[in-house]
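OP here, attaching both records as promised.
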Amino acid sequence: MDTELLRTFLEVRNTRHFGRAAENLCITQAAVSARIKQLEESLGAALFTRSRNNIQLSAEGERLVPHAETVLLALARARHEVQLGDTEQRQVRMGVRSGLWGGALQSKFSSLRESDAELCVNLASLEPGEALRKLLDRSLDCALLCEPPGMPELENITVGEFSLRLYGSAGRLSLRKAIDAAYVYLDWGGGFARFHARHFGDQALPRLQTNLDSLALACVLAEGGACYLPASRRQELAQQGLNPVRGAPVYTRQLSLVYHPDSPQRDVAESIARRFSGVKV
């Protein structure tokens, strides 16, 4: 299938107008109409419902959207990697467990880029489950995770330490006050959930449960309260009026770089592990 047909389909879907789609694609409106007709004929379905000054996706068109986006994204990535192969650069696709990124990792990352000018990094924030799936299907070369997966298909190298501390706003610097109705539970995975249950049981009844660290922090800053956040952010959080809660247990785990042993970028992953060695998050 001609990918220009899919590109035109998505442009019409975005603009809901054949004329504007034609302008954006730098082709004539007749060419847009012809491409949509060709795509509909090849799929055997009408992709749009048309009425005067109103173009909407049909049910079949709605189902086509994610597939069209996937095809075009895969093509763009393929072109990028082929072009990259013609240069002296090396590319590594790296994931970082969402919520981990901060000054400590930024410093290590900057050092990595300075030490290897030919390394091209594609860095993404991912939930652990998604990172593991991508490592297994080889769409990711390595990932920084705070709970080593224990999967025989993957290897991991301990690069540092990950600690969570309970931070509270003014007036909530005792443990009793911190876990009252203003407590926010930030989901850091199964290990943290077990730690939390062991230390707090049902004493801490959060007003909010989320895996979005930015949302959790915003709520605590705006409304007061307490939340478990990376220990390495202490200085940054103090400037925002949050300080460690006295007597609160600290959650500490190894920080690991996980990769597939058969990855063509294994040597790069191991080099990254050495560069990140000793980091404390």
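Record two, same layout:
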Amino acid sequence: MTLHKQFDVNLLRVFLAVCRTGSYTLAADELDLTQPSVSNAISRFKAVIGEELFVRSGRNIKPTAMANYLYEQLNDSFSNIEQTISGLEGFNAATSERQFVILAGDVVSHFLQPALEKIVKDLPIEIVFREPPDHDEDIMEKLYLEQADLVIDMQLPMDLRFEKRLLMRELPICVVSKEHPRIGDKISRDEYFDERHVVIKMRRFNLTAVDLLTDEVLPARKVYSVKSSLLTAFDSLASSDSLCISPRRYAEEYTDMFNLKLLEPPFKMNGIDIEMVWKRKHDKNPAHIWLREQVLSLVK
């Protein structure tokens, strides 16, 4: 490594941004720089370190082992400095320009996004909802690399890098068409397993929603269709004599639209615990505290 009497700390900001985003272009956008400026900064930092930091992989770039090592060693410390300074300046929702990113599935987004939009309507703040990746490690990596500010989902993995809080508990309900020819106001266990099912596939868990939410091993079901979205599942129910399991509050929103009725499941099912997870270093950051408080205010 080449020693420099006056090291330009701004090179660290650029290096960490490129690691986070995996792109010179996205890092330039994040830092409000030109792409050539980012490329030049990385070249200068490479000269200081004396090793390659990034390699091309198709249209993307990937960090080398040295870059990953440096990121692990430097990111938290550098971010803590920035957070300390930011904390001293404070956060004022009325004047602070900020974009927050929340990873959440369609059920959570359905409840929270419209309400949060009303909160920030006249503020210089943007809250963007994005679908979480299919795999736990990818979800938590996005949170750790600060490509997201919050993750709101069920059964998220945890370690010392993160904090979490139970946000709400959803109750599962059986959903069928009001015109179902055989199902009345109640459904028995035998009736449930005699009917065809719209199966909701939980991609993160490689399980169906029903299997995830019950402790018993259920008999095989007759499958009418397999869906990854409850909204498309409700559409299938409206035009068939099939049934499915859904979070109660979400299903209640669509009973009139799809002409559906809700029935208590004929066997014991666990509640759906929806958790909010954030990076531990942001626990006392004023902007992140504000975001979490707004989310919590909507589910009380």
